[in-house]
Amino acid sequence: MSNKIPYRFYLSEDQMPKAWYNLRADMPEQPDPLLNPATHQPIKTEDLYPIFCEKLAQQETDSTTPYFEIPEPVREMYRIYRPSPLIRAYNLEKALDTPAKIYYKFEGNNTSGSHKLNSAIAQAYYAKEQGLTSLTTETGAGQWGTALSEACSYFGIPLTVFMVKVSYQQKPYRKAVMQTFDANVIPSPSDTTEVGRKILAENPNTTGSLGCAISEAVEKAVTTPGCRYVLGSVLNQVLLHQSVIGLECETAMNILGEYPDIVIGCAGGGSNLGGLIAPFMRDKLKGKHNPRIIAVEPASCPSFTRGRYAYDFCDTGHVTPLARMYTLGSEFIPSANHAGGLRYHGMSPILSKLYHDGYMEAVAVEQTKVFEAATFFAKHETILPAPESSHAIRAAIDEAIRCRETGEAKTILFGLTGTGYFDMVAYSSYHDGKMTDYIPSDADLQKGFDKLPKVD
Ligand SMILES: *Cc1c(COP(=O)(O)O)cnc(C)c1O
């Protein structure tokens, strides 16, 4: 059949997006503003300049400009590994015996192995443009640190990465990749910052958390001249940059004559999901289409499904502004879940608002079910998925099975955010039957909620 949709569909270079899309510009109600942690007054753009570079601070607080032109040097680096393919999962459909059409956008075709490079490039570029002399960041599972290391070495900016200690121990080769790109990698909590020393004194055996690594990176940025902090998820600016994923999907599906009935993405801090859904959520907000939009999170770190919609700190050390979001409390330290990239206590304020207002759904899935889906997917689609991405696979498979039961031929689109080559400890524990499904009790979660800041 000549008009059959291909397995892998790539846009041509001139069909790639030339601007990022800012979903806030089309939201009927805005997320609540960031607050100064000391005064509880809304943060002004200039207040962010000591932490973020100026262009990024402006993007962070801009809720009216719908499109931001992608600077040419950023587009140049995008062209090295983009467009990413939109893949029709014919084999998976057959294996599931489902009438559903399943598409996935594969973001794992770059050295960082994930979508995170899309924002890393933008952030490193703006820092260079401003004349900054170094950057700091945190990394959980290591994908963000790797992505930013690549981007910083491309634009020539020295980088220090605070890596969550449990990942540093479980993934020594991640560190080696970052070092290849000249990054300085420090396990967090560390004794190189005041906040790290304080956390270690209170809890010497802690395996760390993203929230804690963020505190250390921010402290280093604000105490080092010419240095700024960059973050790989949660922030509005990161969702903006990640819109390149959704915009490519929109153009590709348009060319193929398709539109998704269901859009699914895994949710850690919300950046890949926010980017993937951006144009589809825009259509939904404008009443043009009504796709179901589903966030998938680990049952061990259930920010959307069991969290509170409240103002909270973005980090454990309480040095960042307060954001209103779905949160488990900034002192919640998740169990050593293997899906390191989904271990964050909070969630993007943009997605939190959309979820709160009923524009999207969320499901929490258990780890062994996620790895069952990951291995099934790998066998049929030949890609070894990242554990984080496999949360989306789980939900997509469940929706496709539902279609088999109801006979509905829905079009499902999900985000395959990355590859799992650095997660073989987790795969081994699954194959050896040693993987567990730790789910926090209500009492565990209450401890986190009790520590939420009081904001009126
Ligand atoms: C970091 C990461 C995630 C989760 O982060 P979001 O900001 O929620 O997108 C998902 N998948 C992969 C492969 C990652 O590296």
Total strand count, please?
A: 15
Helical amount: 40-55%
What is the subunit arrangement here? single chain
Distance separating the two termini: 62 Å
Give me the Rg, rounded: 20 Å
- Low-pLDDT stretches are none
> What form results from the Cα inertia axes?
globular
Averaged pLDDT, please? Answer: 94
The biggest sheet, with number of strands, parallel, antiparallel or mixed sense and barrel status, is:
7 strands, mixed
Number of helices: 17
List the ligand species: pyridoxal-5'-phosphate
Strand % is 15-25%
Report strand order across the widest sheet.
Answer: 1-4-5-15-10-11-14
Query: By helix and strand content, what is the structural category?
Result: alpha/beta
